[in-house]
Amino acid sequence: MGKIAFVFPGQGSQSVGMGQDLYASLPAAKDYFDRANAALGFSLSDLIFQGPEDQLKITYHTQPALLTTSIACLEAFKAAGITPDYVAGHSLGEYSALVAAGVLAFEDAVRTVRARGEFMEQAVPGGLGAMAAVLGAERGALAELCAAITSGGSVVELANVNCPGQIVVSGSKEGVAAVVERCKEAGAKRAIPLEVSGPFHSSLMKPASERLAEVLASIEMKDAAVPVVANVTARPVTQPSDIRGLLVEQVYSPVLWEDTITYLISQGVDTFIELGSGTVLAGLIKKVDKTVKTVSIGSLEALDKFTQEVHNHVNG
């Protein structure tokens, strides 16, 4: 029997109405939305369920919204009786993974990612930073191109190593524009500028990381009940002291998602269950290894379908 990893999505997976069917049907899931509202002092659930989309897309709204939806999905999924051998999350999703592993209390996580979103928004004045998805480039060649552009005075760095052929770069507006223009030098097919409010996971985010460090220092963390594979190292962590440091680094370091999935597969994981809005992670995981099983649980319908499949398998 292979091992199972629960994975949790990050920014970009949000959509107006996510989790609403779980909220309406399952008291245990509804409870998390209600607790998030109380923790933040405003109705996050109204914003999630009704929008408007431009408000939900603001980083300090998106982050607690996605975390709450993921944990509500996790709560609903608990009825299936499946426990993970590992957990991991993409960027913001790492906080959902830490709640799932029992490291962070839910309310602490919601308040922390709200603050994280605010710090990230404020780290670089609007319009000065940018990000772009580069398709088809080899990692080493793209890193070299970024280093050459940065040494010329325009910061640009690898931000998300998502899967073979998909790497996101981040940095100054000029640096990212130079990568978009010159990406073919790194063997890329093309580069697509992303609609984001800042240069996330680049060294320009260091001011945000320093502020986040203060918040994280004040929060209780417990040892992880299951190993959490960290974005920064693509290796498992369980101790609060290590986790705190890695969460601070994560703000300005690349998300090593491809390496995370490769590591998990090397440890015998053959089933990845994505808990939260959308199917972005399942798609990336399949590009790393198309032989593994991926399941996305973001709705009541998806949950019911999965539960039925498990029931048929057990009884069949």
From TrEMBL:
Pfam families membership: Acyl_transf_1 (PF00698)
InterPro entries: Ac_transferase_dom_sf, Acyl_transferase_dom, Acyl_Trfase/lysoPLipase, Mal-CoA-ACP_Trans/PKS_FabD, Malonyl_CoA-ACP_transAc, Malonyl_CoA-ACP_transAc_FabD, Malonyl_transacylase_ACP-bd
Enzyme class name: transferase
Chain ranges passing through the membrane: none
Protein's GO biological process: fatty acid biosynthetic process
Enzyme Commission code: 2.3.1.39
GO MF annotation terms: [acyl-carrier-protein] S-malonyltransferase activity
Annotated PANTHER family: MALONYL-COA-ACYL CARRIER PROTEIN TRANSACYLASE, MITOCHONDRIAL
Signal peptide location: none
A GO cellular-component term linked to this record: cytosol
Active site annotation, chain numbering: S91, H201
Domain of life: Bacteria
Keywords: Acyltransferase, Transferase
Official protein name in the record: Malonyl CoA-acyl carrier protein transacylase
Annotated catalysed reactions: holo-[ACP] + malonyl-CoA = malonyl-[ACP] + CoA
Family: Belongs to the fabD family.
Span of domain Malonyl-CoA:ACP transacylase (MAT): 7-302
